[in-house]
Amino acid sequence: MNAAPLVLLMMGSDTDLTTMQEAANILRTFGVPYEMRISSAHRSPVRTLALASEAAGRGIKIIIAGAGMAAHLAGVVASKTILPVIGVPMPGGALNGVDALYATVQMPGGIPVATMAIGKAGAKNAGLFAVQILALSEPVLAESLLRYRVEMDKELEQKDAELQLR
Ligand code: RP5
Q: How far apart are CA 46 and CA 65, in angstroms?
């Protein structure tokens, strides 16, 4: 995207990309400019801290952070910015995302992370949640969100109608 990014999408590894693409797809659908970065709380801590602390100054409004296993990315990012941070636990590893869920959601009081579901549903909802936050001050986005819900409703109605014909 060419416009200055409003959402910073971070992930701990390139192996998270397929899952985090769900968040990017939502942002693209709503025309919200974003930037995607791979940076790990453990493997590249200095760069991760710099990305977090410089985000607000670059015009970023919301950070989405996806990580798996001992998933400290969202919490570490949140510690270096007062921008809202949305965490997405990645599936995989021996515990298939439950480890990442606990690591992301169990923040000590004082540094919040809005934690979504494990995996693709969580990434998709992270994108939607970011749009919802932006919509508080962007009426056009609010209208688009309402239309999105109407479309979802219509799709289900259609599927229900097809089911009745079987
Ligand atoms: C985390 O460890 C990443 O977010 C990823 O989900 C997980 C495994 O990373 P790889 O070994 O696949 O690079 O830091």
A: 16
